[in-house]
Amino acid sequence: MAYRQRLHYWAIARLLPNQKWAIIARFRSRSDADGHFQFLRRKVPNVLFKVVFDLTSQN
Asked: 10-34 pLDDT, tens per residue?
């Protein structure tokens, strides 16, 4: 994993129809993630999104 990718810990997850969560975007700061989350809630109101702190991609 590249150094630049390791800096993006905040993510937005989307609930898929099979009841699993998928990361759809990663952000460097919580405020960036929250801003994009608000945008997604307005544009796609019928889909469940969450802002998460994601460490699963770290080895």
From this structure: 999 999 999 999 999 999 899 999 9
